[in-house]
Amino acid sequence: MIVKNSTNARTIKRLGAWLVPLAGTLSLMAFRLPADDNPIRVIAEKLSAYYARTLPEKAYLHLDRPAYGTGETIWFSAYVVDALRHRPDTLSKVLHVDLLSPERRVVVRRTLRLVGGRAAGDIELNDSLLAGTYLLRAYTNWMLNAGPDYVYQRRLQVWPASPDQTPADPGIASPATKAAVKSTVLPTGKVDVQFFPEGGTLVAGLPATVGIKAQAANGRSAVVSGQVLDEKNQPVVAVFATPHAGMGRLSFTPAAGQRYHARVKLPDGTSADYPLPAVQPTGYSLHVADTGDSYTVEARYKGTPGAPVPGPVMLLTEVRGFLIGLVPRPITDDGAPATWKVAKSRYPNGILHLTLFDAQSTPQAERLAFILNGAPALNVVLTPDRAAYAPHDPVHVKVQVQDATGQPVATHLSVTVAEAGAAALDPEAGNVATNLLLTSDLAGYVENPGYYFQNKTPETTQALDNLLLTQGWRRYVWKQVLGPTPPPITYPAERDLALSGRVTGMGQQGIANSQLTFIQNKPTRSILTATTGPDGRFNFTGFPGRDTAVITLQARRQTGGTNVMIRPDMGPPTFGAPLPPLPPLAAAPPGVADYLRRSRQQQVQERQNHPGDYVARTVQLGNVAVTGKKVLVPRDDTRRLYGAVANTVIDFANDMSAQSGLSIFQVLQGRVAGLTVSGTPPNMSVQIRGAGSPIFILDGMKVDDDAISSIPANQVESVEVFKGPEAAIFGAGSNGGVIAVYTKRGDKNYKGADKGPSPGILVVRLPGYYQAKEFYQPRYGAPVLNAPASDSRRLTLYWDPEFSTDIKGQGEFLFYTADGGGNFQIATEGVSLAGDPSQGKATIYVAPKSR
């Protein structure tokens, strides 16, 4: 079902300026124009209609710590708000949270029920996972209409902390860790240096400011310097540099007919040449200068000699839907600028989007700037009852939230108390303010977003402007807004759990009016029929979400043909280069060694206190069950060579992603500890722990990897991975491990609904809503409720994902210290009922436990 939204046009009244509410949102559009045929008003109304149709949303996850180790648990609190006012969202009721491996494969997926735009969850980083840079993302189905860049994403450092994975000395990486780092290192290559003219283009004879962005082959920013040369290799810009996060700027006036290039000195000491964008003979330029309490905006025009000068230019400015159209200015072709003054005080905090329109209402140039009137977030004052505590002491904390004028504010918050060293492992990571006000409206990855808001200095202000010169705007493009066809709504808003996807031919083309039969076998039995839409899409809703639903879908063409594929929606695409690897432990940032020591101590003590939790553990990796010694293919099956059963068994038959047209290697990629899958289909290679190519066995026969890569994953019942010594039974050549593939057709006793590549049939297991675990919080003192003899908590002492203050902005909470001593940071993040981000921090000291 597609959610449709409509709003009635509102009457425009003359109030000294044109004032029009923006289609059910926060905003006002103010026009200092006397005429009713104001062209900017027409553009603004189209933008209003665009927002009313797309109703953009934002998601944010607050974590208990900014970095983790293997064997630990990520605790998160989710906020979903409307993208303009940042108030708790009421459109979507389902949130999806994925954890992607360093190779960008989904290893954990959570589906959460949203209540008032809030949800909470947790992800266990099982000790079999390899250390590396992981990607945490959160999205609603509705967000996917804006494209994959619109989902919330955060890179997470996961360090090798499990006692099984790391030696005692944290400065020496184990063989498994070395293999993991080696497998995630990107191929070496030239640093990528890009140039972004302010406003969009270089125009001959018009002064230009150009943003610079340099990125190393491993995906991290690069520090470079250089100069711009003309076609005769004569310098036109003396020196430029990238002082922060690989970004900088340069200024010059390009000449007609010239092709410019930059000679760049790279971090390794070598030099390389990079082209600048081509110089246009005619066009518009846009320059924005920060003058303190306002921005001065200059527009220039260069036309064809002898041609008439175009009519006046108009400037439309916007911050999160708050629009101000400024008075048109006449423009000449002699280089003299048309100028506007944009007062910052007139806008809410956020990215200022400036667009220059010509007399025909065609956008000619764009520029991003930033508005920050006061603090980026509401101040949360945290007051512990004492500054220092002994182990197992109660800690009472009072909370007060106020705005800049000292008025109390009712706010939704999440609260964490974490060891100060662990809480500071990634000090410039994003937070609720940087996300809602900055990164959520920019395309692409922003490195260290916290840097821009930590301290307002001339350096950080300049760095933020460099970011906005080089990073793309992702809210919309004017072609979509002003075009005659409204943007497509492909993905409906989920009010409850849904099963959606497309019916296609053997390629990717959707098949309209395909006949669908829906059979639910568990938890209750039901049968439905439906037809696909014009693009071949389907959407079944109404699942209660209490239990996993087992569903069989059967699709036929309108003519009855069965040569179709059913492709369920699997979330945003996961393709792309591997994430940047962690540095070697010996070269890790300060604090990592102490953090790993604490983490291992905690895990060792937890194993001693709860040994049963570490026996025959099952790891759920994105609906693929990777188990220890669980036998899916019987031990006496004739396809088993030597009767060997692997420690790692992957259940393909019950995996939703294995039914979506992926290859076997694609399903395995990033989901099995020690197994590295590289390349792209059909050219993919496999290694186990970096020890060379494994032996491949298909239904009891040794084959080469080409035979495996050609088999669709939906034909496979299970895969077993033999690592290290357990592969020795297969004899010579088994040093690289063994991968045994068992197909459904090869099993005469297979009971599944689909034994092979049966077109038009799909069996799906749709998990219910994830039920978040309760964070363990012992209580000491009298009466003793659940106080343990020893308390292993050393990293996170307290976690409350759904704390709220009252209308007076007040609240309080209680937690107990543990055995571990040191400094602990109390931190809160959240969003007020009015949509303002909020943050607060405090520190307490816990004395070491006496022996």
From TrEMBL:
The keyword Endoplasmic reticulum does not apply. Signal peptide: none annotated. It is a multi-pass membrane protein. Residues 653-738 form the TonB-dependent receptor plug domain. Keywords: Cell outer membrane, Membrane, Signal, Transmembrane, Transmembrane beta strand, Transport. Belongs to the TonB-dependent receptor family. This is TonB-dependent receptor plug domain-containing protein. The lineage of its organism: Bacteria, Pseudomonadati, Bacteroidota, Cytophagia, Cytophagales.
